[in-house]
User: Which sequence fits this backbone?
């Protein structure tokens, strides 16, 4: 059985100043957005729509605010409202971890809506552009969770080669759920989206694949993670993460239905 190394979450400390691995992972995510974005805007069907590197850098500024504000508010409101209402001073302590992807998704949608309005673009046109740039950044965030010893997995069979004991939880073998989510919700979804979006697709289709793909991937990987809390939907019990992923699956399927119901239109139209 593997043992979680419990690494120091602080990468560099100079007196009272500290740089945490969790923050570095977010920085990596933002750098990946620019690198992948510059590759994407060179694709013929994207370049013909007039997207530029300056657009990407401007969108990143808006997106960073959307991720941080939306992700933190999502963590506060979706997962631990009682704790944060009793300890409001901790709401701003993002360096300790605790960011909701679903909240960040809504925050980015709002931020991109503002950017699109200011630049004469449609919101979903922007989302079709940036959707393939997101999953690897998400994967980096999950690695940050692992370094922070967050999101321990459910108990696993001790014979599982990668079963891992988390000393900060107990001595039982557990699934390394942040790694699962980094690989499946992040890397695998990136590969699917990147390959799919390399060719012209109908307006809304790339966003639809992202929303449905992430929702399905997250719904699956939640089975290996200790739930923040569970909810009843009829006779079924699902985790908070699965509950929040269901609307994304529905949204993604609706976008794909609309996209392919219309006459073929290039994704940049």
Assistant:
């Amino acid at each position: 059985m593997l043992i979680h190394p419990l690494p120091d979450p602080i990468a560099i400390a100079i007196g009272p100043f500290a740089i945490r691995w969790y923050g570095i992972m977010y920085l990596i995510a933002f750098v990946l957005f620019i690198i992948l974005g510059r590759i994407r805007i060179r694709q013929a069907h994207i370049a013909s729509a007039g997207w530029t590197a300056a657009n990407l850098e401007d969108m990143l500024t808006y997106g960073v605010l959307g991720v941080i504000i939306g992700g933190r508010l999502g963590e506060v409101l979706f997962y631990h409202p009682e704790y944060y209402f009793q300890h409001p001073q901790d709401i701003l302590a993002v360096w300790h971890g605790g960011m909701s992807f679903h909240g960040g998704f809504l925050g980015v949608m709002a931020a991109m809506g503002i950017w699109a309005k200011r630049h004469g673009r449609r919101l979903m046109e922007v989302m079709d552009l940036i959707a393939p740039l997101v999953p690897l950044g998400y994967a980096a965030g999950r690695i940050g969770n692992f370094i922070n010893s967050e999101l321990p997995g459910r108990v696993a069979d001790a014979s599982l080669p990668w079963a891992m004991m988390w000393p900060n939880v107990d001595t039982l073998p557990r699934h390394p759920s942040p790694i699962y989510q980094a690989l499946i919700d992040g890397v695998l979804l990136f590969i699917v989206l990147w390959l799919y979006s390399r060719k012209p697709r109908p307006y809304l289709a790339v966003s639809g694949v992202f929303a449905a793909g992430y929702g399905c991937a997250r719904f699956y990987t939640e089975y290996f993670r200790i739930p923040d809390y569970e909810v009843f939907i009829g006779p079924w019990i699902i985790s908070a993460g699965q509950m929040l992923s269901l609307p994304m699956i529905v949204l993604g399927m609706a976008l794909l239905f609309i996209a392919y119901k219309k006459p073929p239109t290039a994704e940049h139209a």
In short: The mean pLDDT is 91. The chain has one domain: 2-261. Residues 2-261 form one domain. The two ends are 53 Å apart (CA to CA).
